[in-house]
Amino acid sequence: MPLTVKTIEKAKSKDKLYRIADAQGLCLEVPPNGSKRWRFRYRFGGKAKMVSLGVWPDVKLPEARDKRDDMRRLLKRGVDPAEHKKSQQAIAEGKDRFEAVAREWFDKFHKNWAEQTGVRKMARLEGHVFPLIGDISIEKVDAPQIRRVLLRLESLGKLHTGHRVKNIIGEVMRYAVAMGLVTHNPVPDLAGVLPPVKEEHRASITDPEGMKGLLCAIDEYQGSPVTRNAMKLAALTFVRPGELRHGEWSEIDFEKKEWRIAAGKMKMKRQHIVPLSRQSIAVLKDMELVTGHGRYIFPSERSRDRAMSNNTVNAALRRMGYTKEEMTGHGFRAMASTNLNEMGFHPDQIERQLAHVEGNKVRAAYNHAEYLPERKKMMQVWADYLDTLRDGGKVIPLKRESNGG
């Protein structure tokens, strides 16, 4: 039976909170303290929910019903009234600015990313986005506003960064849509605003004579022994530079001779197993004497609590006389891939060791076995081959082998 003013006035507090229903989800809530509050009860996404509509007698019965009808209209449009109310409060408090929403999004999701992923995303927001649109209400961040950000980066010759920034803004806007702050994400409308990034050749040394010279130069490197060993392990394991720099002692199993890198650190978000050759174990044992008491295998020179800088290996290569067109830290991967393919190892084994994800779901399920026995053999053969080159063995074209592929 619908409420009346007389019924509301006669409602007394009790030991426990109770509610008196009006109609179509509206009810009066009476807690033990004697106050009387309007509530709208509804279901959204299959869940029972409730939103406050004010306090009686500040909000009279007709006004409460009007507010209830507004909530019902939101539901018909597929909008959650509770989230809508939050968004309106955010606007009233100035929390709807793009920067505020982006930081809220970051705080909510960054724990799911690799540490460096979060650092890079926030750095791009703070460096390229917030100065231009950070103070704008998220409702007013439209395609032209975002285009201005992206075209500025293109004009500065930062096309790759532009594409990254576009993706980040898209993630923030999708979050804003989900939270009811906006009804449309304009980023997909900007699909053609930036030209595609041309794939750059990863500078690498892949010929045996060049590899021999590089390995000898690493052995003779006069800089930090931590950097020298980082380059040695990069050549032996050919993990990505970020995975190398952020390698932790807790990931190394000397008994099993494995380095297990957690999924959160990997580009493809899958745990990666690196079989460790005798030579890799020797490098790690050498490093254990220096950094084994800390977290990182290759810590920063400035702080043992931080990973090695992302420019350390490249800077060492430059000091050794290699230009960025000749060799980079990432180039150790191409060096191994090219030569292992020439040695006749199965491409799937090589790709798995490079931590490339198989797109075909059936093959991906098969690859769950990791090709681990085959990869252990392959990594030892690779390490032995590098020894042969460095130690002055005759440099000859690599011989193809049959590896059960």
UniProtKB/TrEMBL annotation:
Tyr recombinase domain segment(s): 201-379
Highest taxon of source: Bacteria
Nucleotide-binding among keywords: no
Keywords: DNA integration, DNA recombination, DNA-binding
Pfam families per the UniProt record, alphabetical: Arm-DNA-bind_3, Phage_int_M, Phage_integrase
Gene3D superfamilies linked: 1.10.150.130, Integrase, DNA-binding domain, Intergrase catalytic core
Family: Belongs to the 'phage' integrase family.
PANTHER family in UniProt: PROPHAGE INTEGRASE, PROPHAGE INTEGRASE INTS-RELATED
Name by which UniProt lists this protein: Integrase arm-type DNA-binding domain-containing protein
Lineage: Bacteria, Pseudomonadati, Thermodesulfobacteriota, Desulfovibrionia, Desulfovibrionales
